[in-house]
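As a warm-up, study this chain.
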Amino acid sequence: MQSSGHGPQEPIEVTYTDKDHPITKTLSDWTTGKEEHYNNVKLFGKAHPLAHGKQTIKNRDGSEKTNDFVDGWTNEYHGVRVFNTTLIHNSVGVADERYLDLVTRGVLWACDKLNDRYLKPYQPGKTAPN
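Now compare it with the structure written out below.
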């Protein structure tokens, strides 16, 4: 995706637009804390949007504007699966379980490992599966 910038630090309403995709099928829509919302200039190749975000911002004249941009997508590049998201930049947001679920599922999907063997809750002292 090509982006030319982001908006101010304001909450983003995240909506999963492809609720049947393996990455998003168990996830629920949610609203972030204050985050930067990156604009969309162009989605490239076979990019497939998974999530859109809406962010309402106040203009200098006091009026409000709502931006709606793709915030999560998959793509295939020369036979390689790619997952990407522009959500979350602040340390509080990075620790949010909803964000961690999205990123975990996205990375596992890209590695063709999105299955029950790898989707286990973290247990301190246990090693990850090979």
